[in-house]
Sequence to fold (448 residues):
Amino acid sequence: MLSVTQAENQVADLVARARKAGADAADALYIGGASTQVQMRLGALEDVERSEGEEIGLRVFVGQRSASASTSALSSPSFDALVERVVAMAREAPEDPYAALAPEERLMRDELPAIDIDDGAEVDPAALRARALECEDAARSVDGVTNSEGAGASASRTVIALGTSTGFARGYAGTGHGVSASVLAGNGGGMQRDYAYHSARYLSDLEGAAVIGRQAGERAIAKLDPVRPASGPMPVIFDPRVGSGLLGHLIGAITGAAIARKTSFLLDSLGQAVFGADITIVDDPHRVRGLRSRPFDGEGLAAHNTTIIDKGVLTGWLMATAAARQLGLEPTGHASRGIGGAPGAGSSNLHMLPGSVTPGALMADIKQGIYVTELIGMGVNGVTGDYSRGAAGFLIENGELARPVAELTIAGNLKDMYRALIPANDLEFRYASNVPTLRIDGMTVAGG
Fold:
């Protein structure tokens, strides 16, 4: 894997070769990574996996035609062959009046922000094994846990560099550490499974393995002997580990591509109240040690803090250059991409600001409702906003959590759900997308 400086030099070199070969414009993206993962099951080592890889992708423009391809062979002959192939492909591609590099005057020229996402830690497989074993042992020690699907510990480092023919060539590196466990409780047909995990940029920020293990075991035990609730409209409360999915549907609906194609249930909602006035949602790519922090976007534009929902109002779309040109707007610094193809758009570290009441107060007046801890399936229509997901969790009876529930479906429409949403005050920055406990009244629950 290359260093950041070496990667910057490689993408700049590849872009220069493309211009020399006849491309009117070009950009190149390098992604290199190394990761080690150890998996334990029932106290025995089940798997040790070490992976290292690097790849560089090239996108070229010939007039209004473009094409892209990639290679994992980072040598001069390989680069020459890649350039020749991609330029030839571009000359035969259909014209696209919207495809282009990001505006040169918008490229990031300042010093990289201090997002602090690389702890420089060396990977120690023995320490990973000990961490995974500690996690599983803690999970299996919970009374009632009867089997284990395993526990794992991982460590990784990634280097990313982007170069464009408009003079941008910059990169950065980041590390990641994780620990997880998945166990089963009960016996026979009544067995229940649950899990817990934590990820962090810095090893020192990673939660203790025993804490994660106990959490997995206690969650599995709590799900034993579930019932099926009665059907009908009722309040639904989303645990923070599943509630963040509601933000994912929002982001999918406000990308420039969805708006340009008219395939979004929020197509006509710009500048309008989508949520209640107490809801604010922020995208923060500069969060220190954030899981999705980045100094610049996938086109070289400076990433910046964006209030996507401001006191309930949708403030704008998330756009890469192509969609912005199609809509007659400007790119917003939210471009995301892989090695191949054109950039899309997406969020980085996303969160909803907390409300003013505790989770207990949020459910205190609920006579009968559902507290959701697990969502199943992908029954969401991005065009209409119709929402229908399998779910599991707990009954809420007279303001308190009661019996576990399973085999139910919760349904509604995201427009109605967003307007009815009430957040608690328990926001924690634990995942890439974070929300407090959320309450939505009037959802349709289909149970027994």
